[in-house]
UniProtKB/TrEMBL annotation:
TPR repeats lie at residues 310-343, 412-445, 451-484, 485-518. GO terms for cellular component: anaphase-promoting complex; cytoplasm. The keyword Iron does not apply. InterPro entries: TPR-like_helical_dom_sf, TPR_rpt. The lineage of its organism: Eukaryota, Viridiplantae, Streptophyta, Embryophyta, Tracheophyta. Pfam families: ANAPC3, TPR_12, TPR_8. It comes from the Eukaryota. The keyword Cytoplasm does not apply. One of its GO terms (biological process) is anaphase-promoting complex-dependent catabolic process. This is Anaphase-promoting complex subunit 6. Keywords: Cell cycle, Cell division, Mitosis, Repeat, TPR repeat, Ubl conjugation pathway. PANTHER family: CELL DIVISION CYCLE 16,23,27 (PTHR12558), CELL DIVISION CYCLE PROTEIN 16 HOMOLOG (PTHR12558:SF9).
Length: 544
């Protein structure tokens, strides 16, 4: 057969692949490979078999080829076949020997020399070596060797910053602490035209910094996009990209601005109802707002559209948790973890469903599993500390809160819990310092959600007999919420200790208006009235 006729058949194969007619592609690719016995045609045949889901046959074809161990493309495709067959050990063997260190640097297994990956030679294509590193990470992850998986994912993104999947695995599986994420991003080498990607990646990582810092990241990304693309319509499209806005929504959630987060994700889901990352943030915001109707609708739609995804059953669990049916919530959170063991929100929800019913041992077990699976996530460790604090094991609680602080030193909730532990241990000066650090780490303006922290500082100052400072913080708390019994009773008691009985009586009355049967305020009101009467008698005697 003439070369022109063979080239025509190759064109037919490519056309069949582009139109997803894989059986036709396999048929014609087989004939071309038989006629030429050319490695490129054998590779094309293997690709057609792979796309047609004939993984075992594709692997046999590649493995029989003498070039499979010399050509990275052949080896990678053979390993991909083994990945689809879930033969992870064989997949690693096919990819060959190599070592990686904690920083993601790859070394030759034989001589121990550092391997350098040349990105420039492939002109906008993902480096094949990066893809191999990523596949190694995926294989180690499937074999539950998360330490090796983390190192190979880091190697993949360092070999080629365009390998977004590797960064996504590191972030979504919480394999790195917030500091490690920042260090990894700063080590990546972007080409000048990819500066916008560097800014975009910085928006993906943990966002517990100050509001001005995070907003500066988004602003920088917008400026990079403006400088990289031409045309106002294209710039507007990228700035309003769903992925970018989902990052903003996630930031609003971490700032406890739940209503703002919910409104943004609701708008995004109208445009793209199947954006799963945005869906997860939307579910979290709806949970915090107690919007059970929205959770019910979302859960129904997700189970219908994605019955095999952990997110769908997590949504069902969220609905039951929201309406306080914790046993049912637990069942669906457990189902989500069985579908995808690396889905961290389901593990947290599973533990919280036990904690809500004060089943401490089961809750601790779930949190410990989550802490082991997601070393870069501080929440499991934080919740373990909360469980210890609930059982009055304050020293143990303090240890776990300090571990959470080491993982994520910028989350204000960690400092708040450290302050609560110090208060319970009667270390009031230390408690004040932790609570003030809490307020210093709040990324946005002070809102009602942080009113308990302000009240806690006031309580601690009262214990230190610093009544002026205590009254100042109680009054500050009242600017955030006027419906807190603790604030009014604490303020009344502080005035009472100061000897300002009129102000104390007034605030005891306000506290009792919120809760008429409060025993402490009822008793202390009677004491304050008696003290005021006694004070009046004493002053009369002195005047005579």
């Amino acid at each position: 057969m003439r070369e022109e006729e063979i080239e025509k058949i190759r064109g037919v194969v490519r056309d069949c692949v582009s139109k997803h007619l894989y059986s036709s592609a396999i048929f014609f690719a087989d004939k071309v490979a038989a006629l030429t016995n050319d490695p490129a045609d054998i590779y094309m045949q293997a690709q057609a078999l792979f796309l047609g889901r004939h993984y075992r046959r594709a692997f046999h074809l590649l493995n029989a080829s003498k070039i499979v161990l010399r050509d990275l493309r052949f080896r990678y495709l053979a390993a991909k076949c083994l990945e689809e067959l879930k033969e992870w050990d064989q997949c690693l063997l096919m990819l060959g020997d190599a070592k990686v260190d904690e920083d993601g640097n790859v070394y030759d297994a034989k001589d121990g020399n550092l391997i350098y990956f040349d990105k420039d030679g492939e002109d906008r294509e993902i480096n094949i070596s990066s893809a191999i590193c990523f596949l190694r990470g995926k294989a180690y992850g499937a074999l539950q060797n998360r330490s090796q998986a983390r190192q190979w994912y880091k190697a993949a993104i360092k070999a080629d910053p365009l390998c977004y999947e590797a960064l996504e695995c590191l972030i979504e599986s919480h394999m790195l602490t917030s500091e490690e994420e920042s260090n990894l991003l700063s080590s990546l080498q972007f080409s000048p035209e990819d500066r916008w990607l560097s800014s975009f990646y910085s928006c993906l990582i943990k966002k517990y910094d100050k509001e001005s810092t995070v907003e500066a990241r988004f602003k920088k990304l917008e400026n990079e996009i403006s400088g990289s693309v031409s045309g106002s319509s294209m710039i507007s499209t990228l700035v309003n990209n769903t992925d970018l806005l989902a990052c903003k929504a996630e930031y609003y959630h971490q700032c406890c601005q739940y209503q703002k987060c919910f409104e943004l994700t609701a708008g995004l889901l109208e445009k793209d109802p199947f954006h799963l990352k945005c869906t997860l943030v939307h579910l979290a915001a709806a949970m915090e707002l107690g919007n059970s109707n929205e959770l019910y609708l979302m859960a129904c739609n997700l189970v219908k559209d994605y019955p095999s995804k952990a997110l769908s059953w997590f949504a069902v669990g969220c609905y039951y948790y929201c309406i306080k049916k914790y046993a049912e919530a637990r069942r669906y959170f457990s189902k989500a973890t069985n579908i995808d063991g690396s889905f961290s929100p389901a593990w947290i929800g599973f533990g919280n469903s036990f904690a809500a019913q004060e089943e401490g041992d089961q809750a601790m077990s779930a949190y410990r599993t989550a802490a082991r699976l997601f070393p870069g996530c501080h929440l499991p460790t934080l919740y373990i500390g909360m469980e210890y604090m609930r059982t009055h094991s304050y020293k143990l609680a303090d240890q776990f809160f300090m571990q959470a602080k080491a993982i994520c030193p910028s989350d204000p909730l960690v400092y708040n819990e450290l302050g609560v532990v110090a208060y319970h241990m009667k270390e009031y000066g230390k408690a004040v310092r932790w609570f003030e650090k809490t307020l210093a780490h709040i990324p946005s303006v002070l809102t009602e959600i942080w009113e308990p922290t302000v009240v806690n500082i006031a309580h601690a100052y009262r214990k230190l007999r610093k009544y002026r400072e205590a009254i100042s913080y109680y009054e500050r708390a009242l600017t955030l919420s006027t419906k807190s019994l603790s604030t009014y009773s604490g303020l009344a008691y502080t005035y009472h200790l100061q000897g300002n009985f009129s102000a104390a009586i007034s605030h005891y009355h306000k506290a009792l208006w919120l809760k008429p049967d409060d025993q402490f305020c009822t008793e202390m009101l009677n004491v304050a009235l008696m003290d005021e009467c006694q004070n009046g008698v004493d002053s009369t005697v002195e005047l005579c």
